[in-house]
């Protein structure tokens, strides 16, 4: 029963649409009608408000990390894995928004940092390095989604590798339109509205 409760708690925490809340609170508009229509930090950045984008990034990653850390503290590693994956699912499919949420990248990174900081660090570094070179957020996310489970497996963390692979597959699915634009050479670069 405890695992079910921690999974539900992780989902509900993950389902808080921080980007949407921040954008509305600052009078930036409804993110679902701006740029890509996504509720995450990259789309908040398209509003031109860098502090709001940073706050969204930190809160979206934080909800994954907090779900993992609380579950681990009170119920152990299995609960932490489930709560983190559930927070990711909550971000992607929030009940409050008719199950139409973000792409989950920040929550993925926060979850990984809390599950295994070396894996999370590699995923963040992969995202940052790819973004610095390509200036394409979606490509950065896809690279991190591929490398994180491989690195977790190499470290002997099969449990984290499985969670990272599950989230990584969903990141690819959530980025299907981005992948099409990447193949066509029309994917927007970071900082472009």
TrEMBL record:
Keywords of the record: Acyltransferase, Cell membrane, Lipid biosynthesis, Lipid metabolism, Membrane, Phospholipid biosynthesis, Phospholipid metabolism, Transferase, Transmembrane, Transmembrane helix
Cellular component, GO, one term: plasma membrane
GO biological process: phospholipid biosynthetic process
Pathway named in the protein's UniProt entry: Lipid metabolism; phospholipid metabolism
Entry's family note: Belongs to the PlsY family.
Quaternary structure and partners: Probably interacts with PlsX.
Function according to Swiss-Prot or TrEMBL: Catalyzes the transfer of an acyl group from acyl-phosphate (acyl-PO(4)) to glycerol-3-phosphate (G3P) to form lysophosphatidic acid (LPA). This enzyme utilizes acyl-phosphate as fatty acyl donor, but not acyl-CoA or acyl-ACP.
HAMAP family recorded: PlsY
Name recorded for this polypeptide: Glycerol-3-phosphate acyltransferase
Biological classification of the source: Bacteria, Pseudomonadati, Pseudomonadota, Alphaproteobacteria, Rhodobacterales
Gene: plsY
């Amino acid at each position: 029963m405890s695992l079910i409760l921690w999974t539900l708690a992780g989902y509900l925490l993950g389902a808080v649409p921080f980007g949407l809340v921040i954008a509305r609170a600052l009078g930036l508009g409804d993110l679902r009608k701006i740029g890509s229509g996504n509720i995450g930090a990259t789309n908040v950045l398209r509003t031109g408000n860098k502090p709001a984008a940073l706050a969204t990034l930190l809160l979206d990653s934080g909800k994954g990390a907090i779900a993992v850390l609380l579950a681990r503290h009170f119920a152990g590693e299995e609960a932490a894995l489930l709560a983190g994956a559930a927070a990711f699912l909550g971000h992607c499919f929030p009940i409050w928004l008719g199950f139409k949420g973000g792409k989950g990248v920040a929550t993925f990174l926060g979850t990984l940092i809390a599950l295994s900081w070396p894996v999370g660090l590699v995923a963040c570094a992969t995202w940052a390095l790819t973004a610095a070179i390509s200036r394409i957020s979606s490509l950065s996310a896809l690279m991190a989604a591929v490398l994180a489970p491989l690195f977790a497996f190499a470290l002997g963390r099969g449990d984290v590798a499985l969670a990272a692979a599950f989230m990584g597959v969903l990141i690819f699915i959530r980025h299907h339109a981005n992948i099409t634009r990447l193949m066509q050479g029309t994917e927007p670069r970071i900082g472009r509205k």
